[in-house]
Amino acid sequence: MKNPSRSLLFIAVLVSAAIAATACGGAATSTPEQGAIDETVSGTSSSSPSSPQQGKFEAIAPMKEGRQSHAMVLLHDGTIMAIAGQGLGNTATYNANLNSAEVYDPTTNEWTLTGTLNAFRVNPAAITLSDGRVLVAGGGTVDRNATALAETWDPATGQWTEIAPMNQAREKMPMVQLNDGRILVVGGSDETAQRTVTVEIYDLTTDTWTDVPPMGDKRIWHTATLLTGGKVLVTGGGNPDGPFLSSAEVFDPATETWSSAGQMNVSRSQHTATLLTDGRVLVVGGRGKRQTSEIYDPVTNTWGTFADTNIPRAEHVALELPDGNVIVAGGTGNRDSIEVYDPISATWTLVGTMKLSRYRFTGTLLGDGRVALVGGQGKESTLADSEAFTPVLSNRTEAELLAAAEQARAQIAAALASATSTPAPSPTPEPDREATTGEGLDLVFAAALESDESGRTTVPLNQPVRLALDQAVISPDPNTGATATFTEVVEDSRAGGGKATITVSIRMGFFEQGTTDLTLDPTDPDSAVKKLGRLWVGLVALEENAAGAPVASVVIFLP
User: Fold this and answer.
1) Among 387, 373, 370, which Cα is nearest to 321's?
2) What is the pLDDT of residues 249-261, one digit of tens each?
3) Measured in whole angstroms, how far is the alpha carbon of residue 318 from the centre of its chain?
4) How is domain 9-417 classified at the CATH fold level?
5) Which residue among 202, 234, 488, 519 is least packed, with the fewest CB closer than 10 Å?
6) Is-above-0.85 flag for pTM?
7) What is the CATH number of domain 449-557?
């Protein structure tokens, strides 16, 4: 299932138009080129009397530690737990990853530290188990590599205990509890910072992880949503700088098989997917300034775009409210606004502004109806600050929500009856890392230092380091700089007058950026360097050590 069937691609376009026409009061038209329905969806706020109203914001107690890229779960007693993540960092070790957890009690407005995790983790996955314990798995450790370590927190003791590790080290992956109590973990970034298709299931009764058939696409920063019938919808994914995936897949735990869920209208990564009361799934935003939302219907296995959000969003929070509306808050770009999606009118409405802008944060619906918004990255630093939003709920019934969903399905059927297929798009190409050359740069550096015993050497900018295979140079530090890991010698034909090429994997902060090749070529000196945003990476020399193994002198620098 490497390339899942794309036969449903045209449905997304047709459904988008049909639903948009109803939601926005427009008429559908046919394009001469494709013969398909085309309708532009308005992203303006609804002004109808039933539109969501402005809510109330209040500051709540700050956490004991600032944290972003953490996990958060709702405990059985109504408290919430913030777990690990990235903090302000230790200036001596550059370690900003956390191994702490803390619990917030909304009745006393207090945070309490609870136990110490057995590993530092950023971007871990966590879930509250049926017996009240909390399971945490994966994440990036101190050296930014993914871990397979899993552990549980016991509310009776407040302590963390290691359990069986996953079969695959992974981070940036979702975790879902299936209807039978087992835990599904899907994809992510592995210990070599590569995207993976692997999937495994944890059984609490036997403390074992079991590999199940892989997905059709390698995914990181994707979503996994438990559907009403017990299947799991997986959508999108991709590196923060692209390419992003538009494909979606469904996992059936009963048969342990995957099937295609077609293509979203927009490729997405670091987006959200929220299960609605009517059983459909609302997908919102994503990297690349995505200002769109679309809905997946598991009954018809189709996608439809309903309305644009008011503001582009990624790394935001999305939660369903008790009235069936969906609240979306914050996001990349220092977003501080909150808007609400109404699935009956298919419109987005801005309903307030948070006290602080934030992204890479977490949100949870509390038992008293408030929405807790916790931590994240603020305008200047990692936040310990938290706040609560009290929404104004509508008085619609579940029957009204289900009726709206049925009406949407009827419109889908009508659109399909008169539709023609649109061709599948070409795959999104990998980022071109050769677009910027080193022409005219001064490529003279100090003598290379030997790698330290850890194999991950942190040095100032412009200082080369001699790396064996799988060793890395970090400069100027792992939080604000880049990490380049020497992974392969592609060729070395210099003895015959040719060139030498190596592959390095790149990580900027805690985001992996894929791999790039660096070449020592007398006829093309620019090929020895590549630009990585504001920084550059370069190959200074390629030699052999006494044992005949390759040693590359690699530098991260600013011209």
Assistant:
1) 370
2) 999 999 999 999 9
3) 13
4) Neuraminidase (2.120.10)
5) 488
6) no
7) 2.60.98
